[in-house]
Amino acid sequence: MDIGIPTNVRHVSHVTFDRFRGFLGLPVEFEPEVPTRVPSASANVFGVSTESMQLSYDSRGNSVPAILLLMQRHLFALGGLQAEGIFRITGDNSQVEYVREQLNRGVVPEEIDAHCLAGLIKAWFRELPSGVLDSLDPQQVMQCETEEQCTQLARLLPPTEYALLDWAINLMADVVQQEHLNKMNARNIAVVFAPNMTQMADPLTALVYSVQVMNFLKTLISKTLREREYSMVEPTGASYLEPFDDDGDQRPSIACITYTQKDNEEKETAFIAQEPLRASFRNYSQNNETVDGEEHSPIPSVYKQISAEDTPTPARNNDIGESSNSSPGNKINPYLLLTKPKEYAT
Questions:
Q1: Domains of the chain and CATH, by start
Q2: How many CA atoms does the CB half-sphere of 313 hold within 13 Å?
Q3: pTM over cut 0.70
Q4: Fewer CB near the terminus (10 Å): N or C of the chain?
Q5: CA–CA distances in Å: residue 87 to residues 115, 252, 264
Q6: Which residues, at least 6 apart from 252, have a Cβ–Cβ distance to it below 8 Å?
Q7: Distance from C-alpha of 144 to C-alpha of 164, rounded to nearest angstrom
Q8: pLDDT, tens digit, for every residue of 232-271?
Q9: 109-119: b or e for each residue (b if 16 or more CB lie within 10 Å)?
């Protein structure tokens, strides 16, 4: 028996899903079972495309799934950055499944283990329909050796994947900055994240490739840490951000804006104060001595190079798409040469 076409149809409501505001036009009687602000248009937040997920802006201005920011916020609140073996130690399986079900509703249960939440962050990346780095040529990833090469390769990612990679790299950098407590250095955190960033059908090929992905991630983490060191920027999600609002967004605090302006003024003053010193190097370099027909100068060669350079530009805090380290062809920044970088705690 054939089923006929419906003859009595009524258009009750029109509901759309906005990736930043959730469901729009949802009837009131549906709200108890279908909250307006759900983390995804589908029933799950794991194993679905980011195109169907609610987005929010992170502290760096990237639009990432709100569920990631929700898990990140609770991970920090639970002291996850200080937990030994975070992202390496797995949580209790029964608790992981329960928390996964709650996250599908956009809720993080109270009294959960930080290792459980960290494991679900890795699972979120692992269960994506396609890996974050799958659009990159594996041969190019294997050939990356320097920070500049890794940075240039990361720029080839589509905007969504680039935002996810940037978010993940900064989260891993946050973990490494607490290495003295959690025992997770750049290599350790890169090792546990690498298998979750790509998907390959052949297990042997995936194992070999994950080693190259690990080196790729480790290089970007080290670069991010050094840029934070030079710019004196607090870790992502730390003191210079206001608490998350009801929409899952974070905004820079007034203290952050004031600090940045004051810091810039201090840097400008420092460069003005150094100018007479630079001039004295130029004058002093003219008093060279000639011994046995050769010219000798008591000024160390590094200061000659500084005196010959133009006024330096302070180092900037770039994202992973911009490299701040000096290459052989770039001018040496005397502000970095004359400043001893702060060493990390071991």
A1: 16-230 (1.10.555.10)
A2: 7
A3: no
A4: N
A5: 7, 27, 36
A6: 59, 240, 241, 242
A7: 20
A8: 745 554 433 444 454 555 544 333 433 444 455 554 444 4
A9: eeebbbbbbbb
